[in-house]
Write a structure and sequence with these properties.
Helix content is about 30%, strand content about 30%. The protein is an alpha+beta fold. It has one domain: Beta-Lactamase (2-Layer Sandwich), CATH 3.30.450.
Length: about 150
């Protein structure tokens, strides 16, 4: 987690190395195993970019998530969602993934005034996120439609 950690460095990584590297740049500054871009498609959130610190192929359960059981639903409802330990987060009492997807920090991606999807960091272990890294996530989401994913 060294080097310059700001939106200009993110944009530079995006321009010079592409979307995968830009997502990797965001992930390098956080302890979370995963960073991802999800596109809202009706009642489903479809993973369009995933960075895994361990470098494994995307598990099938992360490829497509029903909206009503996703943590992304709270991002879209409230404008962001942060939990470092979902097992202890009373807002999630009764949620099927409480304590399963333990850490989740996400922000919406808006394109042309419409909600396009989410940009998030998550992990199956409790992970904190600094205010500065959360702000960088917000800033990156503002340019994500350009970096993310056509269509």
């Amino acid at each position: 987690m060294t080097g310059t950690r700001n939106i200009d460095a993110f944009k530079s990584t995006l321009a010079l190395a592409g979307a995968d590297s830009a997502l990797g740049f965001l992930n390098a500054g956080v302890p979370h195993r995963y960073s991802a871009v999800y596109r809202l498609e009706g009642e489903v959130l479809r993973n369009v970019l995933l960075h895994d610190k361990v470098g494994e192929i995307r598990p099938s359960y992360l490829a497509e998530v029903p909206f009503e059981t996703s943590f992304c639903q709270f991002v879209l409802r409230d404008g962001h969602f942060k939990t470092s330990d979902s097992a202890a987060d009373r807002r999630l009492d009764g949620h099927p993934y409480q304590g399963v997807m333990v850490s989740y920090h996400g922000v919406p991606i808006v394109s042309d005034g419409e909600v396009w999807g989410t940009l998030c960091h998550f992990d199956v272990a409790a992970q904190p996120l600094t205010d500065r890294e959360f702000e960088l996530l917000r800033e990156a989401a503002a340019v994500t439609p350009g970096f993310a994913v056509p269509g």
